[in-house]
Amino acid sequence: MSGWQQHLPVFPIVLPLLAAATLLLLRGEARRPQRAALALLATLAQLAVAGILFAMADARLPTPWPAEIGVYALGGWAAPFGIVLVVDRLSTLLLALTATLGLATLVYSLARWSRTGVYYLPLFQCLLLGLNGAFLTGDLFNLFVFFEIMLTASYGLALHGSGLARVRAGLHYIVVNLVGSLLFLIAAALIYGVTGTLNMADLARRVATLTPADRALFDSGAALLGIVFLIKAGSWPLNFWLPATYGAAAAPVAGVFAILTKVGVYALLRFETLLHASGAPAPFGGQWLFYCGLATIATGALGMLAAQRLDRLASFLVIISSGTLLAAFGFNGTTLTGPALFYLVNSVLGTGAFFLVIELAERDRTAVADLLAVSFEYFGVRDPEDPAHPDEVVGAVIPMAMAFLGLSFIVCALLLIGLPPLSGFIAKFALLAAAIAAAPDAANALPSWLFVAVLLLSGLAGMIALSRLGIRVFWDSTRKTPNLQWMEAGPVAALMLLCIALAMGAGPAMSYFNVAARSLHDGRGYVESVLASGGVETP
Predict the structure, then answer these.
(1) CA dihedral defined by 495, 492, 13, 191, rounded to 10 degrees?
(2) Are strands 84-87 and 70-73 parallel, antiparallel or unpaired?
(3) Which of 41, 119, 268, 275 has the fewest Cβ atoms nearer than 10 Å?
(4) Which of 156, 158, 159 has the alpha carbon at shortest distance from 122?
(5) Residue 28 — φ and ψ, nearest 5°?
């Protein structure tokens, strides 16, 4: 295999880094087309690289590494002394998901949002850099570094634009995550002081050899680390910052933020599978994650029912998706992991599209639009049997833009609630079927039925909330038909089509997710691949 193919694992980090640096140099309104073209090319390149790595991890393309899991040693320093990037099915899946969502929201933002701030495009590339690095790194401290790159970029993007609500929510978001970053550093210091390593694979090996006193310190550090990941995942009771931040953010920013909480979920899952053999401490071990997930779903459902704006309702849908994933990954055993990965892909794509649809649907709405009227007089509809108007046609022609937005809203609602026939239903049905199948086991009887009940009730709450606010938005006779650009409608349609394709290919997709789940829970395979391989030396 040629040299550039051997170094593909580092491309998702290098490409956005170079793009962000170049975009900082291309200033001025006259260079706006060049800036947009560079950002698009960089994101397309990341999507292409993620697709190749995805195929390599699934053994559909030849790989430069001997084992199923690929290891890339930065600087030629092998683990555990050097920094490594680890390529497996889960990390490449999330890389592809990040690039897909990033490309869709970037194209949408080029219609007008990217022009309202000088540093929007560089910050966007830095956000992708942090996400890609967090999914690839095999080192705890570098996970912190990529977390900080991602968060620093998200601070600027959350404040992008104007408005008191956005500034207030953005500053709240910054303070909460700065506290989380401090806890992350303290946790990393405790873990390193006890184990002498920050390599994740080496860490999993050394934990089993700790003395009781050292193990107590390690568990304290792991508990702090778990709190940090729960904050980032949007778990109850640490998710109070999320609805205001996501609801106030610009539409493409909120759309790409749909995957940020999944970084915390990914980190929790990765550490839980690595530490499982040596007795994972809370919140990685036991059923802590499961009950945190159930509480998160419940608070998200209540928040949806109380929401009076679609953007805030969408924020609570993000919370529900995180809660569902936490509950599934915290369930006793591994039966829910594969369906949960299917649900993760559907929820990220669906929520990202929904934030974009909301901005388009609520564009040019008047203040009176939130007052719902149900009488025929309010809508100007007359009785077709009235002899005074024998030839009058009831209703009005629906403009193409409103038809597209109405259909998009319905598709997103079906995806996120989990109603047939789209991929959201398949994901929820797979989760429910797996939970019910595990119910005969005495240890899983109560958790199984609790999971089923909470998931069904959250879907009912979502249907009620989305129907209520959807009627307010689309049955408003005083509103003007919004003007849509192809750069805005195209990304929304593309994300929904991907979800439809996921539903049509549910069989192969579920097979892939189940294989990825088995590989993920084989923590020994991850450890052996990282520590036994010297990786691929960088030039």
Answers:
(1) -70
(2) antiparallel
(3) 41
(4) 156
(5) 100, 145
